[in-house]
Write a structure and sequence with these properties.
Rossmann fold, alpha/beta, 11 helices, about 350 residues, 7-stranded mixed beta sheet, 6-stranded mixed beta sheet
Length: about 350
């Protein structure tokens, strides 16, 4: 995500202040007190969000939900900071280090874009425990790093099957935020699930941006424009695996009188109230569970480094039923779900 030298310098300079990056210090009630049963000071957890930060109604908010649960149930003290579009790698490294320097020595990095930074900062701070969401690469690996990943393709298979079962035009769409290997897993599962139901179904695919431009995860306008084109072309259901840009897809669905599929969070509950009724289902990716489990493992002294995969069998991914729009096909989706868990269905990742 490097642009002109001047812009990179500005982004890096902005990262020198957590406040400038949208950070906030959010102590839990009585955070300065000793939590019951710990016999010591409150655990301090720093969270570095990806672009869009808390309030994106999707991926970052799912991570925030895990942090909020830890504040409520475990009495941890927290500090948050967010990435900005177009920033240099040095800005991400500086953000992580500043959280550590502020005393938050248990760090959650939200998103694969932090991989290199986590690897480098974790090596320089071996006493600090890290979790990174959505990366299991050698770049972020280390004896003090918990790599939290998900079987996105499995959950996407289920919503793909749902789209094929509910489409009236035999034509659906997929909009990915940024064309990365991770988002291609969402696409692969969605296409496989749809074609398992209707082999001849038409599936439009569009990515909003290409690396190193990651604005596709936070551009409502791009999401709206892409969805408008698909709906005008005949698609009647679109799966948006695009983070905050999904809000634009939902707006386009509302205007077209069509349906959409959310991602990461149950977006029929988290999206803007005026578009929730167009969200047929969401592929739930339980980032909150991964984040909370990491924090609890540190508190309980059971932390383990390495990759943890949250799949359908582990309850790490699923589909939502809010709004009742897929109640009539739930039994069929649960049949597919059982076959994936048993291994009878092998879902592709690319």
């Amino acid at each position: 995500m490097r642009h002109a030298t001047k812009l990179a310098a500005i982004a890096a300079a902005a990262a020198l202040s957590l406040a400038a990056c949208g950070s906030s210090s959010t102590p839990s009630p009585g955070a300065g007190d000793t939590p019951a049963g710990t016999g010591g000071a409150a655990l301090k957890v720093g969270m570095a969000y990806d672009v869009g930060g808390r309030g994106d109604q999707s991926f970052n908010d799912a991570a925030a939900a895990g942090l909020d649960k830890a504040k409520t149930e475990l009495g941890v003290e927290t500090k948050e900071a967010s990435a900005v579009n177009g920033e240099a790698e040095s800005a991400r490294k500086e953000r992580l280090q500043q959280l550590i320097d502020a005393g938050y020595t248990n760090i959650v990095a939200v998103g694969f874009a932090y991989a290199k930074s986590v690897g480098q900062v974790a090596k320089a701070n071996p006493e600090v425990k890290f979790a990174i969401v959505d990366d299991a690469s050698p770049d972020s690996a280390g004896p003090n790093v918990d790599q939290i990943t998900f079987a996105e393709e499995q959950g996407s298979y289920l919503v793909g099957a749902a789209a094929a079962l509910k489409t009236k035009s035999n034509h659906v769409g997929f909009i990915g935020g940024v064309q990365t290997d991770l988002i291609k897993k969402f696409e692969a599962g969605y296409v496989a699930g749809a074609k398992a139901v209707k082999p001849d179904i038409k599936i439009d695919v569009k990515y909003l941006t290409q690396p190193p431009d990651f604005s596709g995860f936070s551009s409502v306008d791009k999401g709206k424009a892409a969805a408008e084109g698909m709906y005008q072309g005949g698609a009647d259901i679109i799966y948006a695996a695009a983070g905050g840009s999904g809000g634009g897809v939902f707006t386009a669905a509302k205007a077209a009188g069509k349906l959409a599929i959310g991602v990461d969070s149950d977006q029929a509950k988290t999206a803007a109230p005026d578009v929730r009724d167009v969200i047929m289902t969401s592929m739930i990716k339980k980032v909150d569970v991964g984040v909370y489990d990491f924090i609890k493992s540190v508190k309980d002294n059971t932390f383990k480094a390495g990759n943890r995969v949250f799949d359908l069998a582990a309850g790490g991914v699923d589909y939502s039923t809010t709004g009742g729009k897929i109640d009539d096909i739930k039994s069929k989706l649960d049949e597919y779900k059982a076959k994936i868990i048993s291994g009878e269905i092998k879902v592709p990742t690319s």
